[in-house]
């Protein structure tokens, strides 16, 4: 029962130490520098000391016998705090996290000046030298992240290999846990970071070239010469001058108040309404002309029908005429 209670106490102490170390490790690794590992080891020393103090109170309450049993529990809690620190460091130094830290360090030195203000590159600035210095400073962080420097700890033995059996339990090799990023993984991360750094450099170059693009002076002079007559016509014509002033004022107000979007939407809406109205007028005009055309077609159709009737009766009339002529000829022969 006492062993189970002490096991629960050790797990609780490790959780408390893990929470305290996580905050320290995140802060130090996100702001890397020469004293990064010194700060991490100070956090380890504080977490280990606090865990041992709480363990001492738990052992007193549980009436653990003094001597080797208590020393074994102290070594176990130290080992647990160390393993939790290493696990938090490895989680913080995953591939994407390392690249993010390197890119952030590069941007801090390349995009911002010493006062923390964004840089605006000018043609006279030596962007190549500034980028080379910023990239070298960022790449120097990769070896710093690769291995734990435990020399700043005040509680660990000077040669860490001798900590087994004295500070940690017997058989625990803390030396093997110092490597966080292997050499092969460090080379791969270096290549990936180089590609991202080149992309950042090209982006800055394009921005500087864009700022350098300007209209040549001779083009402005040519525009003035060719447009002199038009400018004079506008200046000396009151109507043109007023229209130009209204147009320039409208453009200035729209640009100053950033109303180009609403203005374009309003113009599109008016154009749509005008299009619908013109379409309705055309439809009404077509509907009015159709009855007139139909009325003009009806008399012509009646005339065609009458002409066709007369044409059908003409053979009958010719036949009756022939009969009358034959009758008159027969009468003349009888009188004779």
* Count of strand segments: 0
Give the strand content.
under 5%
Specify the biggest β-sheet. Answer: none
* Mean pLDDT across all amino acids: 83
Overall spatial form: elongated
User: What helical percentage do the residues reach?
Assistant: over 70%
Assembly type: single chain
Class of secondary structure makeup: mainly alpha
Order of helices and strands: HHHHHHHHHHH
Low-confidence stretches: 305-336
How far do the termini sit from each other? Answer: 171 Å
Instruction: Count helical runs.
Output: 11
**Integer-rounded radius of gyration:** 50 Å
Can you tell me about this structure?
By secondary structure, this protein is mainly α. Helix content is 77%, strand content 0%. It is built from eleven helices and no strands. The longest helix is centred in the last third of the chain and has 76 residues, at 260-335. The radius of gyration is 50 Å and the shape is elongated. It starts with a helix and ends with a helix. 14% of the residues are buried. The model is unreliable at 305-336 (pLDDT under 50).
């Amino acid at each position: 029962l006492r062993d189970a209670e002490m096991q629960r106490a050790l797990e609780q102490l490790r959780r408390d130490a893990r929470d305290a170390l996580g905050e320290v490790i995140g802060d130090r690794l996100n702001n890397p520098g020469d004293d990064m590992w010194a700060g991490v080891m100070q956090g380890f020393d504080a977490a280990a000391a606090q865990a041992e103090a709480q363990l001492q109170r738990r052992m007193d309450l549980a009436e653990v016998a003094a001597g080797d049993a208590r020393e074994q529990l102290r070594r176990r809690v130290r080992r647990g705090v160390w393993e939790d620190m290493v696990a938090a460091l490895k989680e913080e130094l995953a591939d994407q996290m390392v690249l993010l830290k390197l890119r952030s360090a590069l941007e801090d030195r390349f995009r911002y000046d010493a006062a923390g203000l964004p840089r605006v590159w000018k043609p006279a600035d030596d962007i190549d030298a500034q980028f080379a210095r910023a990239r070298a400073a960022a790449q120097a962080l990769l070896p710093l992240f690769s291995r734990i420097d435990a020399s700043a700890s005040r509680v660990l033995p000077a040669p860490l290999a001798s900590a087994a059996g004295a500070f940690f339990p017997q058989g625990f090799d803390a030396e093997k846990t110092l490597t966080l990023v292997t050499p092969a993984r460090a080379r791969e991360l270096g290549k990936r970071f180089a590609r991202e750094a080149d992309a950042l450099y090209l982006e800055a170059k394009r921005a500087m070239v864009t700022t350098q693009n300007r209209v040549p002076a001779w083009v402005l002079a040519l525009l003035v010469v060719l447009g002199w007559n038009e400018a004079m016509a506008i200046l000396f014509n009151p109507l043109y001058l007023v229209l130009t002033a209204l147009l320039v004022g409208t453009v200035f107000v729209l640009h100053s108040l950033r109303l180009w979007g609403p203005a374009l939407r309003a113009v599109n809406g008016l154009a749509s309404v005008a299009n619908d109205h013109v379409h309705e007028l055309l439809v009404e005009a077509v509907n009015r002309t159709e009855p007139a055309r139909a009325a003009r077609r009806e008399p012509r159709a009646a005339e065609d029908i009458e002409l066709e009737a007369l044409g059908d009766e003409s053979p009958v009339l010719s036949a009756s005429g022939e009969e009358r002529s034959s009758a008159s000829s027969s009468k003349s022969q009888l009188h004779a």
